[in-house]
Amino acid sequence: MEERYEKLSRIEDYWAEVGFEPWRGLGLTGVYRRVTFRKGALLGEVARYYADDYIIWEHEGERSVERILREWKGLPEVMAHRVLLLGDETWPKHLQKSFRWGFRGWVEIYSLRLGDNPHKRFADLAYWTLMGLDFASKISGGGTGLEVVPATGGEAGSLR
């Protein structure tokens, strides 16, 4: 685990407050949340599906990506699994694997070095991660030498 992301594992209260819970699987460690989408009509709810989000700070880089693409399974009623891998590089675009031609959903994987501009599909997860680092440095009393700069217009923000 990289030193700069290690603090994220010690702020369970923060993660719970923003809707995430600890998660482990496939040799990965991070946090997870499930988001519910409901489609309504005049007669009430006509459809419901879920999206699972993962912020992962402990992984094995490319080996973890290969393992996710090989072993990740779709879940009933879960349309999207977004996996944000925190690391030393930011990919220009995300990887995607569909389950049964997309009828059973898909998994999207993206690698981000905090401080870089994230792909727009992962900007919200990058934002929660940046805020988590800011929170961790404030409660530990020691700074990381990084300052979180809020962004305007729905962007993720940046580190200074």
The radius of gyration over CA amounts to 16 Å
> How many domains would you count in the coordinates?
1
Percent helix, as a range, is 10-25%
Give the SSE string.
HHEEEHEEEHEE
User: Can you tell me the residue ranges where pLDDT is under 50 for at least 5 consecutive residues?
Assistant: none
Report strand order across the widest sheet: 1-2-3-4-6-5
Strand content: 35-45%
Oligomeric nature of the chains: single chain
Described by strand count, sense and barrel closure, the largest sheet is: 6 strands, mixed
Gap between N and C termini = 22 Å
Number of helices: 4
SSE class: alpha/beta
Mean pLDDT: 83
Question: How many β-strand runs?
Answer: 8
Shape: globular
Write up this protein.
The model has no long low-confidence stretch (mean pLDDT 83). Helix content is 24%, strand content 36%. The strands form two sheets. A six-stranded mixed sheet has the order 1-2-3-4-6-5, with helices on both faces. A two-stranded antiparallel ribbon has the order 7-8. The protein has 160 residues and is α/β, with parallel strands linked by helices. The longest helix has 18 residues, at 123-140. It has one domain (3-159). The chain contains four helices and eight strands; from the N terminus they run ααβββαβββαββ.
